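re: the backbone from monday

yeah here it is again, tokenized this time
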């Protein structure tokens, strides 16, 4: 067990904003069911609390990656419909059935194991079928569709849903989207009357052509940017404040941090924050004289990281604050309303998804509000 004093970083999760984001996406996809993707600890926000808030907002269909995540959602939400994106783990059929989890089946081996269990118990346990339309990850290959159909027709089995996943949804004008959409149409034609699902957050926001009967947003629920190069319309869910430990001075010509990768070109005021790569503040956010790094928000201004990010601490140049310097114990916003997760991710050379799911650091998680919204 880890003991906490409450003195570390404060990660605040706005469950009201999460619920509003789900409702907003549910409006955009009116006519389709809006699921919620809560894999990877609900993108770092906490799978139990976030799933409950999404359920209170109206979500009934949940996607997770692993059976363990499925069990966690099941324990929190006895009536939820839960799909396991990783499919049927070998030997896990009994567990899925006991927990009422639906595998997203994507191979003949998974299909045979699931159907075998259905035959053994003489019951058509629900599942989804995933067809690969061009991302070359999980899923049946397209040329298996006829075989799959024949196999289930003989048994009188039908999946709850057929689905696929887009490779380039974050770039709406990428031609691969239209190609995958057309190929998905050919899959659907093999399974007439079965509900279909293709859209992640970005495809949901791109247009109705991608909605079908169910949409599967993840990142947009948590306030992340789904579509590249466009203003992000979603509300901020995750805010991280970390404490400033010390405010100090450095002189022109001195270097900052390991490897002496940053040299001060003026007499500077430096704030040392209790936040390093062990907390998910990627080392790629380090600032050198050649390449700026991340920024954090202190006393109304965005202030740059200087030098290398260490395991537990980072150095922030607060010279621009003039005489309005922060006090030790004061918080610096790493992301939230003034620094978006995506701005920070851009500076790190990664994506908001990785920033959020890397938040396994030494912070206190606080929840604000819940999923219950005024109608
Ligand atoms: C993660 C995932 C999603 C959600 O994607 P976002 O880009 O976070 O909206 C949807 N479908 C599948 C198959 C996924 O793996």
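seq for it, each position gets an aa:
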């Amino acid at each position: 067990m880890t003991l906490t004093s409450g003195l570390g970083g404060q990660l605040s999760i706005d469950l009201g904003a999460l619920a509003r984001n789900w409702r907003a996406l549910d409006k955009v996809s009116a006519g389709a069911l809006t699921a919620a993707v809560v894999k990877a600890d609900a993108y770092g926000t906490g799978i139990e609390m976030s799933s409950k808030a999404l359920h209170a907002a109206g979500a009934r269909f949940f996607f997770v990656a692993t059976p363990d995540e499925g069990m966690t959602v099941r324990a929190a939400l006895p009536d939820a419909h839960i799909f396991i994106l990783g499919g049927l783990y070998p030997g896990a059929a009994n567990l899925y059935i006991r927990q009422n989890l639906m595998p997203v089946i994507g191979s003949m081996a998974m299909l045979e194991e699931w159907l075998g269990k259905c035959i053994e118990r003489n019951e058509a346990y629900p599942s989804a079928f995933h067809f690969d339309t061009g991302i070359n990850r999980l899923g049946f290959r397209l040329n298996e569709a006829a075989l799959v159909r024949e196999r289930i027709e003989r048994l009188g089995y039908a999946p709850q849903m057929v689905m696929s996943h887009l490779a380039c949804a974050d770039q709406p004008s990428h031609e691969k989207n239209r190609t995958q959409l057309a190929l998905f149409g050919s899959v659907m034609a093999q399974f007439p009357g079965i509900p279909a699902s293709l859209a992640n957050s970005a495809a949901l926001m791109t247009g109705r052509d991608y909605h079908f009967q169910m949409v599967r947003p993840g990142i947009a629920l948590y306030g992340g940017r789904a579509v590249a190069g466009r203003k992000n319309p979603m509300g901020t869910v995750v805010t991280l404040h970390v404490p400033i430990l010390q405010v100090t001075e450095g002189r022109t010509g001195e270097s900052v941090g390991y490897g002496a990768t940053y040299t001060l070109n003026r007499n500077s005021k430096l704030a040392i924050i209790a936040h390093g790569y062990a907390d998910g503040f990627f080392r790629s956010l380090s600032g050198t004289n050649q390449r700026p790094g991340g920024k954090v928000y202190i006393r109304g201004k965005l202030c740059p990281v200087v030098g290398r990010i260490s395991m537990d601490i980072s150095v922030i140049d607060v010279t621009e604050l003039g005489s309005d310097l922060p006090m030790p114990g004061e918080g610096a916003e790493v992301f939230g309303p003034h620094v978006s997760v995506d701005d920070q991710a851009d500076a790190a050379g990664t994506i908001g998804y990785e920033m959020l799911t890397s938040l396994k650091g030494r912070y206190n998680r606080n929840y604000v509000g819940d999923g219950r919204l005024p109608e």
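The two ends are 41 Å apart (CA to CA). The mean pLDDT is 96.
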